[in-house]
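User: I'm putting together a teaching handout on how multi-component assemblies are represented. Below are the sequence lines for each component of a complex, exactly as they appear in our records. Could you produce the 3D structure of the whole assembly as structure tokens, so the students can see both representations side by side? Please keep the chain order the same as the input.
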Amino acid sequence: MMADPLALEVLCFRLGGILWGIEAGQVDRIARPEEALDDPLLDPARVLGVAPEASLQGRRLLLRPGTARAILPVDEVLDLVSLSANDLAALPPLIAGALPDERIWAVGKVGTQILLLLDAATLCGTKTGAGDRAGQEEG
Amino acid sequence: MMAGEETSGAERRAALLRQADEAAQAQEAQDGAAIHLLLVALSGEHYGFPLDRVREVVKPAPITPVPSIPEHILGVMNLRGEILPVLDLKRLLGLGAGAPDPQGRIVIVKSPGMAVGFLADSVEDAIEVRGTLEPPLATLPEGQAQYLQGQVAHADRLVGVLNVEALLARRE
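Assistant: Of course. Below is the structure of the complete assembly, with chains in the same order as your input.
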């Protein structure tokens, strides 16, 4: 079967007990927690409303949407999946209308599971001052 | 049989049908119009969704929570490929927090442009009630009356008739 040229490559990860996805093109690389990094560190509790769990499998995603840069700590990086139009759905209006912005822009369907798809550009625009300082200290 | 007798017979049947229709209308006016409800249980109380708003009832499927949204929205579920929001009916009605369990059911309700799931403790029956909607009792939990069209008597108990539009309009 030919690959769908319009399909979206999505990096799946777990954070705060929820499955998330982010377009692979918006991720520069995956880093280990102990790695020294210079970019601003996002606070998941503030930008996504979920707190990371203490986990040995924890990783950091280096986000590069356009010229913006930020680091998102996650509990576990799971897989890279290809989502075609049939695997994507808009957020129900009731949900989209209750969110503060478009940081979750759609959902992905992987089997019976649902991925919340993040927009890295929106996330990078919501980085916190505390997170910036933490990132610089660790960098 | 003569032609005149046939005409007379047809007229008599038509007259009887007219009388039957008038009698049914008179009975309905006396009893009140029929109200069709899907009866659900929440914390031991009974509530009814207008049956014409109910699309289907499903067993609880995995619900993916969405952070940063009001507590009464439990999240989204994947129903045969359709992504639906699921609301906590108990929390909306001030009856505590609902949690999916094997006995629970999700009532999928039709709304213009979308479908929405409501989590209930159980689904009891589809019923027809004759009578008029009474205003909600003042003894209901605080804030609940705004989500009810009214109450009707059924099987020696009061059933709150849910106002789907009001439930969907809640923002906080």
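A couple of points students might notice: Chain A is about 15% helix and 35% strand. The beta strands of chain A are 8-15, 18-23, 27-31, 59-63, 70-74, 76-83, 88-89, 104-110, 113-118.
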